[in-house]
Design a protein that fits this description.
Elements lengths: L2 H16 L17 H15 L15 H12 L4
Helix pairs in contact: 1-2, 1-3
Length: 81
């Protein structure tokens, strides 16, 4: 799975968790209404779908969006994607 496929899947997960449609790759998690509960749900979905562990801090330390999450997944998963 390449970066763009991962990014699309992450956007779909964000739409599911945040109960929103039309999320773009650069739409910020917090600006979309993300909170700690949504971050925990995203962590669970990312673990389930990609086998990667992100911390709750990853969602709040710096601006987070589908593109930055996809980049972290690629870095954490190495050649598994």
């Amino acid at each position: 799975m390449d970066h763009s496929e991962i990014e699309l899947k992450v956007r779909m997960l964000l739409e599911e968790v945040l109960s929103r449609t039309g999320i773009e790759a650069t739409d910020g998690f917090l600006m979309l209404g993300g909170d700690s509960l949504c971050a925990m749900l995203m962590m669970s979905r990312l673990r389930r779908d990609f086998g990667v562990e992100l911390s709750i801090e990853d969602f709040f330390i710096e601006p987070v969006n589908a593109s930055t999450i996809a980049h972290q997944i690629v870095l954490l998963s190495g050649d598994r994607t």
